Amino acid sequence: MLRRFNKEIATIKGVTTKRLHTCGLLIKGRSVKICPVATGHLRGSAYVNTLSLPSGPVTEIGYMAAYALLVHEINRRYRAPGTSWKYLEKAMKESIADCRRILSEKAV
Q: What's the CA gap between 16 and 58, in Å, rounded?
């Protein structure tokens, strides 16, 4: 899924760092809403980091909590209603159309 998303972004001309960061914030926000919560530490560890490289802008979205990968990848029943494993992946899938629109908007 990530490869397809990256290929699609590469076809959009004029992707700016600001617009890509906006997409990152959108995905992070959706991800945090469905992220399992016990103490709030995992949700609080979410981040978006956007850089402007010679090859173009890049955005990294992730979670700093040491156990984030386990919670994301292992389907357990400790989740509260409305939360889910694969919370970051699901948020990306839900955001593809919105990010396509944000990245393709004409500058004003």
A: 10
